[in-house]
Amino acid sequence: MAPLEPDQAALRHLRAEIEDCQLCSRLVAWREQVAQTPRASYAGQSYWGRPVAGFGDPRARLVVVGLAPAAHGGNRTGRVFTGDRSGDWLYGALFRAGYANQPRSTGRDDGLTLDGAWVTAAVRCAPPANKPTPAEREQCRPYLERELAALTDCRVIVALGQFATSALAAHFGLRPRPKFAHLAEYELPGATLVCSYHPSQQNTFTGTLTQPMFDAVFARARQLGA
To answer: Which CA distances in Å does 88 have to 13, 105, 110, 206?
Structure first.
């Protein structure tokens, strides 16, 4: 086996650290409680119940940053944006834009691969009510910082929602803080930040985010060089 390139080795080491993390006691307790009491529709399944690392192409020119794993999505399957409706929306859009080889993500062994894209989150554990605290976001921020540092080909970062936008603004020290709006853009060192509504059911069921609106985000990423 050929040796890993430095950035790939850094991402693999980071994954191992993330998956063993116990830093936030509230999140540790919640993710494990959910894993021990699965929904009836997932009865008999073995939940991941641990922090969830990023996923994709180490040579990604596009990085997508979400909020956190869903309790019965990433926290169940062990892969970010996998096994829930938000993931269906995200990977469907990435497939239509040519970043994914298939439009669905159901589990870690489903054959999904990404070409030129990496998907991650600001917080790595499923939070109660899908709401991490600011302290939990800050506790997780070094993981995001190291991840972005290892993704040396990144040219476009898509922030899914206000929480991810705020996490990225803190990471890059943006002043003034960016005002969140769908398709708002901000220049970063060596890259462009593009904001998008999060593909949560709250947004997709109400029409706040439509498929054409979401597709426009990744079409813009292509235009910007991703």
So the answer is: 28, 7, 13, 17
